[in-house]
C-alpha cells in the first residue's frame, strides 16, 4: 500500500525541525531536505564545485567546506543570486528525495521536511501539507536572540521566503508553535493521531 506522503513546511525559525523530531519519535519516516541540501554540497561533490564556480572560493571555509553563513549573506539579499544557488542545489536535493522515497515501507507515514513547499509550488505533490506557523515577530525574536542575527539580517531572511499568508493558503493542517514546548507536544500528539487516522482510512 502506498505510504501517506506528508509535506511539512514553515518559515525560518518557526520550529519546523522540532515538529519533525517529534513526529520521528512517534514513528514517522522523516526525510529532511535541509540535511540533504548540506550533503549535496559536501567537499568533493559536483554540487560544491558548481557553487564555488558561481560564487567564488570566498564561500569556502578554511577546511574546504561550504561557509553557509557567508553564502547566506550573499544570496538572501539578492534574488538573482539566490535563484542561481537554488538551480544548483534543488535538483540534487529532489533526486536524493526520490531515491529515499523508494526505500519507504508500504503503509508508512512519510514526512518530508521541506522549507520551500509554498515557494516551489510543491503542495500538490503531497497527500497533505502541514504548516508550522508562528507570527513574524516571533521569527524575528528567535533569529536575533537564538541565532545572533541582526534585525536587518532577520528581516532579509523572512523577505526571501514565502509570506505567512502564502504558507497558510496551502496548509491542510496548521501547527501553532508560538507557545511553549509543552503546548507543541500536545499539538504534535494531535497531529500524529490525525495522520494515523488518515493512513488507516486509506487501507479500508
Break the fold down into its secondary structure elements and pairings.
Elements: E1 4-10, H1 16-26, E2 29-32, H2 33-39, H3 46-55, H4 68-75, H5 79-101, E3 109-113, E4 128-133, H6 136-145, H7 151-159, H8 164-169, E5 173-176, H9 181-201
Question: Measured on Cα atoms, how large is the radius of gyration?
Answer: 18 Å
Give me the count of strands: 5
Strand order of the largest sheet: 2-3-1-4-5
Q: What is the oligomer described by this structure?
A: single chain
- Main beta sheet, described? 5 strands, parallel
- Parts with pLDDT < 50 across at least 5 consecutive residues: none
Q: Tell me the number of helical segments per DSSP (H or I, 4 or more residues long).
A: 9
Structural commentary:
It is built from nine helices and five strands. It has helices spanning 16-26, 33-39, 46-55, 68-75, 79-101, 136-145, 151-159, 164-169, 181-201, and strands at 4-10, 29-32, 109-113, 128-133, 173-176. A five-stranded parallel β-sheet has the order 2-3-1-4-5, sandwiched between helices. It is globular and about 50 Å long. The mean pLDDT is 93.
Any key phrases for this structure?
5-stranded parallel beta sheet, 13% strand
Write a brief structural summary.
By secondary structure, this protein is α/β, with parallel strands linked by helices.
Amino acid at each position: 500500500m502506498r505510504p501517506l506522503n506528508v509535506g511539512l513546511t514553515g518559515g525560518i525559525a518557526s520550529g519546523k525541525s522540532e515538529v519533525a523530531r517529534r513526529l520521528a519519535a512517534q514513528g514517522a519516516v522523516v526525510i529532511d531536505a535541509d540535511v540533504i541540501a548540506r550533503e549535496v554540497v559536501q567537499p568533493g561533490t559536483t554540487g560544491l564545485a558548481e557553487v564555488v564556480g558561481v560564487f567564488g572560493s570566498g564561500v569556502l571555509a578554511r577546511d574546504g567546506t561550504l561557509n553557509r553563513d557567508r553564502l547566506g549573506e550573499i544570496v538572501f539579499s539578492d534574488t538573482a543570486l539566490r535563484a542561481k544557488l537554488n538551480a544548483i542545489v534543488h535538483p540534487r536535493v529532489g533526486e536524493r528525495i526520490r531515491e529515499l522515497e523508494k526505500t519507504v515501507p508500504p503503509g508508512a507515514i512519510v514526512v518530508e521536511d521541506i522549507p520551500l513547499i509554498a515557494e516551489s509550488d510543491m503542495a500538490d505533490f503531497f497527500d497533505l501539507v502541514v504548516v508550522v506557523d508562528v507570527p513574524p515577530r516571533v521569527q524575528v525574536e528567535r533569529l536575533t536572540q537564538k541565532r545572533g542575527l541582526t534585525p536587518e539580517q532577520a528581516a532579509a531572511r523572512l523577505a526571501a521566503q514565502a509570506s505567512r499568508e502564502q504558507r497558510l493558503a496551502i496548509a491542510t493542517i496548521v501547527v501553532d508553535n508560538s507557545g511553549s514546548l509543552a503546548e507543541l507536544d500536545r499539538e504534535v500528539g494531535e497531529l500524529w493521531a490525525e495522520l494515523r487516522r488518515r493512513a488507516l482510512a486509506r487501507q479500508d
